[in-house]
Amino acid sequence: SVPMRRMSQRVFVYGTLKRGEPNHYWLTKKENGKSRFLGKGTTVVRFPLVVGTRYNIPFLLARPGQGKHIQGEIYEVDQAMFGKLDELEEYPNYYDREEQPIRTEQNETVQCWLYLIRNFPEKLLAKEQLECYHDTPEKPYSEKSARTVPSRDDLSY
User: Fold this and answer.
1) Which of 13, 22, 69, 131 pairs with 45 at a CA distance of 20 to 30 A?
2) Please, which residues have CB within 8 angstroms of residue 85's CB and are 6 or more apart in sequence?
3) Which member of 76, 87, 89, 131 is catalytic?
4) When comparing pLDDT for 1 and 39, which is higher?
5) CA 33, CA 27: separation in Å to the nearest integer?
6) Nearest-CA neighbor of 151 among 125, 114, 117, 115?
7) pLDDT of amino acid 54
8) What is the pLDDT of residues 57-77, one digit of tens each?
9) What is the mean pLDDT of residues 139-157?
């Protein structure tokens, strides 16, 4: 028997989609679909989280076991919103995604999708590895519309 496809997916966001960050509006735009904030969470597995390219984009690098336990937020989204997030993250050509166990504030573990980068220059691992991302005036995030170079061509910047 094939399990019924859930109407909703859980997604763990650690970068510009968090509340108070530059892309959070994607999750609240009615035209994009539905999303519901479920709470804060932390990855059970360690990952390197770095800010890269001239656009100061947060990247979760696919090197499980390295880096820190990443702090972020858990959302439940419908298929429409999930599709919009794939569009924002340029999945699968730029970011990939996979399900990862996330520990909630209630100390439960839930499986959530998270977006991460599989193909990246090694030198990104030499950057400061964060536990928690924030957009800052010193390293301002540049929205897609403002970029002159496609960010996936700028990984080795």
Assistant:
1) 22
2) 11, 17, 26, 77, 91, 115
3) 89
4) 39
5) 8
6) 117
7) 85
8) 999 999 999 999 999 999 999
9) 78
User: Has 131 been annotated as catalytic?
Assistant: no
Both tokens of 34, joined, read: 């539905």
CA atoms of 127 and 86, how far apart (whole Å):
26
By DSSP bridging, strand 49-52 and strand 8-13 are unpaired
Q: Which of 42, 79, 33, 34 is nearest to 60 (CA)?
A: 42
> What does the pLDDT read at residue 115?
98
CA distance 59 to 61: 6
Rounded Cα–Cα distance for residues 2 and 146 (Å): 44
Gyration radius (Cα) of the chain, Å = 15
Amino acid at position 23, single letter: N
Return all residues near 25 (Cβ < 8 A) that are at least 6 apart: none
| pLDDT (0 to 100) of residue 6 | 61
List the structure tokens of 22: 């530059």
- Please give the torsion angle defined by the CA atoms of residues 144, 145, 146 and 147, in that order, rounded to the nearest 10 degrees: 50
- The answer to whether 129 touches 67, Cβ cutoff 8 Å, is yes
Question: Tokens 């076991």 correspond to what residue?
Answer: 65
**Residue for token digits 């301002």?**
140
Is pLDDT at 84 greater than 90 in this prediction? yes
